[in-house]
Amino acid sequence: MSLALWLYSALTWAAQPLLRRKLRRRAVAEPGYGHAVGERFGRYARPIDSLIPQSSTDPLGRFVWIHAVSLGETRAAAILLAELRRQLPGMRLLLTHGTATGRAEGEKLLLPGDVQVWQPWDTPGAVRRFLRQFRPAIGILMETEVWPNLVAGCRQRGIPLVLANARFNEKSLRKSLRLAALARPAYGGLAAVWAQTDADAERLQSIGAPVQGVFGNLKFDVVPDAGQRARGRAWRAGSARPVVMLASSRDGEESMWLAALKQKSTPAVEKKAQAAINSEANSTDKTVQWLVVPRHPQRFAEVRQLLCSAGLTVSSRRQWADGPEPADVWLGDSLGEMVLYYSLADVALLGGSFAPLGGQNLIEAIACGCPVVVGPHTFNFAEAATLACEQGVAHRVEDIGQGVALACDLATDAPRLAVARDLAQEFMQQHRGAARLTAAAIAALLGLAAAP
C-alpha cells in the first residue's frame, strides 16, 4: 500500500463515526438513509452461502455488480441493465447505491435472485467484507464513481472493475491532478473505461485511465415509460394554457425564478409572468401554466412553502387523482415520474443550470419531445447540452430571466414548438447505441459470447 493510499485509508476509517451521524441526520427527512446502515460498513444479515455457491466458476453463476450512486446514475444503469439482460440471459445482478433516491429507484430493477445493498464505505475493511460476501464476476461503476480502496480491493482479488458511461469534466480533472498520488493509481487500476465523449476520454487518459472506447451517452438509449407518457399527454390536453416546467430545480433556483417573474425592469418577462400567475385567467388565455418539479424530495415541503409565501396557489401532484387541479403553480412532488412531467410540459427550464451546479440530465426531456431552455451552467452534461443547442432542441440563455421569457415565447408559438418536437425525435435517433456497445464490451471482458 502506498503512503497516499495508507493516509487516505486512515482518514476514511476515522471518518466512520461522522458518516453514521450524517446518516442519522439525513434519515430524519429521508428515512431510507436509516435502512440497513450496517451494509455501508460491510456488515450483512445473510451469509454468503444463501446468496451464491462458493465453488461457482461460471461468470453468470456469480453476480454482475453495478454501482449507481444516485438517481441519475441509476436511471442510466437501468438502460444498460436492460441490454445486459438481453445479451447475457440469466445474469444475476448485484446493485449498489450511495443515496436513498438511487436505492429506491434501483429497487424497481430487481428480479428474483438479484441483490441490492449499499455501496461499502471506502475503507479497506468494508471493501474486503463486501467483496468476500458477494464475489462478483465483474464490477461496473457508473459515470464518475471511482474509489481508491474499491479499485485496489478488486485488483487484489482479480475482479475486473470498469467505468461505464464515463464523464470527466475539467473541474474533476483539476481535482484529480491535485491528488494525483491517489487518483492516478485509482483510475489506472480500472480494467476498462468507456467514455461518453472524446473530450471525456482525453481527460480520463491524462489521469491514467485505460480508455478503451468512446461509446456515447447511455441516456440516449432511454425509452420513456409509455404509461407515464400517455397520462402526461392526456393531462396536457386538459390544460387551457401551455405548460412550462421548471425541471429538477435545485436550492435557490426557485427563488431566482420567482424574482424573474416579478422583475419589473424586464417588461417582456413581467408581462408574461403576471399573466402566467393570474389565477383569474380564462380558457382562452394564451399565457402559460407553470409546473415546478424540485430535484430532491427532501425539499418538496420547503418549495411548497416558498410558493405559498409568494402569494401563489399551489396544486401538488400528491393531490391529483384525475389530473392537475387549477392553481397558479403545479408542484411535482413525487419520485419516479419525470417522464409524466416532461410529457405534461410544452417546454422545460433545466434546473441546476441557472445556479453554478452543472445542470441536470436534459436528454430525458428531449426523449419525451419536450424542448429545453438551459442556463449558463451545464458542465455536468456539457457535450449533450452543446449538441442539443446546435441542433435546435435546446436553447441556451444567460440567466433565468431570459429563460422565462424564451420559454414562454416558445410555449405559445405552436408552429415553432412542433418543429422543436420533430427535431427532438431526430436528435435522439442520431445518438443511440451506447447500451449495445457497452454490454458487448462487458460480455467480452467476462469471456462470454453476447446474444445477437
UniProtKB/TrEMBL annotation:
Primary location group: membrane
Domain 3-deoxy-D-manno-octulosonic-acid transferase N-terminal: from-to ranges: 37-222
Domain of life: Bacteria
Annotated Gene3D superfamilies: 3-Deoxy-D-manno-octulosonic-acid transferase, N-terminal domain, Glycogen Phosphorylase B
Site positions (Transition state stabilizer): E143, K219
Its EC number(s): 2.4.99.12
Location(s), subcellular: Cell membrane
Keywords from the named record: Cell membrane, Lipopolysaccharide biosynthesis, Membrane, Transferase
Gene Ontology BP terms: lipid A biosynthetic process; lipopolysaccharide core region biosynthetic process
Protein name per its UniProtKB record: 3-deoxy-D-manno-octulosonic acid transferase
Active-site annotation: E73
Transmembrane feature ranges: none
Role description: Involved in lipopolysaccharide (LPS) biosynthesis. Catalyzes the transfer of 3-deoxy-D-manno-octulosonate (Kdo) residue(s) from CMP-Kdo to lipid IV(A), the tetraacyldisaccharide-1,4'-bisphosphate precursor of lipid A.
Entry keyword Chloroplast: no
Example GO molecular function: Kdo transferase activity
Pathway: Bacterial outer membrane biogenesis; LPS core biosynthesis
The UniProt record lists the keyword Ubl conjugation: no
InterPro entries the record matches: Glycos_transf_N (IPR007507), Glycos_transf_N_sf (IPR038107), Kdotransferase (IPR039901)
Gene Ontology CC annotations of this record: plasma membrane
Family, per entry: Belongs to the glycosyltransferase group 1 family.
Catalytic reaction equation(s): lipid IVA (E. coli) + CMP-3-deoxy-beta-D-manno-octulosonate = alpha-Kdo-(2->6)-lipid IVA (E. coli) + CMP + H(+)
